[in-house]
User: What shape does this take?
Amino acid sequence: MKRVFGRMQEAFANNRFFSTKAADASAARLRLRPTTTAAEWTHALEWSDTFTKELPGDKEIPRAPYTLPVEEADEDSGKTVALDEDRLRKSRQVNGALWSWAVPERHEGARLVGVSAAGAQLVGLSHEQFWANKEAAAAVWSGNQRLPGSNGWAHCYGGHQFGAWAEQLGDGRAISLGEVATKDGRWEIQLKGSGRTPYSRFGDGYAVRRSSIREYLAAEHLHALGVPSSRSLALVFTDRVVEREEPELGAVLTRLSPSWVRFGSFELPAARGDYELVRKLADYMLRHHFADIADQGEEADAENRYARLLRRVVQLTAHTVAQWQAVGFCHGVMNTDNMSLLGRTIDYGPFAFIDAYDPHFICNHSDPLGRYAFDEQPRVALWNLIRLAAPLSVQIDSPEPPFQHTRTDALSKPTVEIIENVLNGFQGLFASEYARIMRRKFGLFRTAEDDDAAGLVKPFLALIAKARTDYTFAMRTLCRAPEALAATTDFSDKFSQLRSLVDALAERSLNLKCGSEEWKESVCCFFETVYAPRLARDLGCADQKLTPADAETARELGAQMKRENPRFVLRNWVAQDVIERAEKGDEQWIDKVLAVMTTHAFDDQLPEHLAEAEVYAGPVPEWGEGLQCSCSS
Assistant: This one.
């Protein structure tokens, strides 16, 4: 550990990470990445950039580097242009802008290790296109070679981190290559871990294999579970040694989102008093991502377009967080710079799926006070939305120029009432969506009762919390309950079938005291007196009772429930196992696990070529219990 800190101190002392000094005449000129000539990539993507064309950029670098005069050219290493590299890579404040031009750094030993076929399809590419010439693909998707027509940029934004305003943040190690428009929508393609930008602050601009594997798998996995998420395209390993808590090897992840705009994208210009820039960004998002509410007109008594924008973001955020809670997902670092304006899950860091159910679960060991604990996520989401409402409030108050004022404490009464009404709607939106999802997980597909969350879901969660039962296993086990409850009218036989189900839950519980008869009887009682009557009402059974006549319906219902309750989730120990196997050379296992977590996440049995991954649906091994990650990646 001393050796690592020593190397870090040396790096800072030698100014390798950043400098606040202006570039001098002797600074190195920027060497661009050569453009790929590989047949698979020369005409692969047609760029349709809107962000850099329609929104203000960094005035210190007014022209895209690839359009600058060439001072020196080398066929292999690229062209040198009339721009000091320090201007592009050293940390500095960027005012009056939402982005800066950026060029990836070169990475030695780049090799392709993963491709998401589903992600490729989104941008009009194919899985085979990557592997047909994997060396060429590695060069392109590491950033070592440029795709024709690509002019990369890094986003400028701020944010509240752990509740404190952090001022300018921005894409410190992510570079957007461009936007493409396909039949599946508009996608902004971004390289994460591609090198320093003006927003890198004290970071090095790189990503390590460990965190890159986790995000590559998680983004696609959450999408497969029905949770709004950024998407993954490709994963490239490099031979770069990256300093973290200890030296690690590097990686570059290609990820996709319709937009990478965050709450913090609005917060930073507002904090600087630049509400014109806030308006430009809001209008851009309305134009390209919320066109349905942008075109509704501006009636005198109706909410204006900025109020409608805030309302939509509140709704999207509430629905996404409800889905997190339903699948047992803990994000771990819900800073406002990690909150997507589109309500997508982004910036996967120390995330985790709950193993033993604990509503107070903390997945980030950098969060000792539990600000971002599992059961705090809805509250924090609303807190973050209040931060977003502040810069939008001035726009809501003055929807047309000029601004009446730029003080959030001088808003008109109608504006304050609108904002309060919108924000006060979050809890209802969250609760409604959570109840909707949980009804389906409990097999209630036909009817909704007002007390389903409080009278059905909450008691069951209280039981498994007491026992610290594996959450994913418990929800999957529910799929067996309808058939057990409808199997027979003989109480002793029915109790025997229920007891078998409850015994299985007890075996996957960490609180051994809950293997007691008392706890098991409580669970059986829940199934008999709470769940069975509610299920019977949903199915329209006579006398509100399940009988053997309903057995076939119950079996079909159980099968339907399995499409709502995954058998496989990307637990921390599973991700760690993939990481360790990759470190030992089994890099093909990464995409095999990707298939398990996407195509086969809900399957009762894996195909033969993936059978080795069956263990991931089993009990958490002792070494994997309580694994936590940090923000360091």
In short: The chain has a mean pLDDT of 92. The chain is about 40% helix and 15% strand.
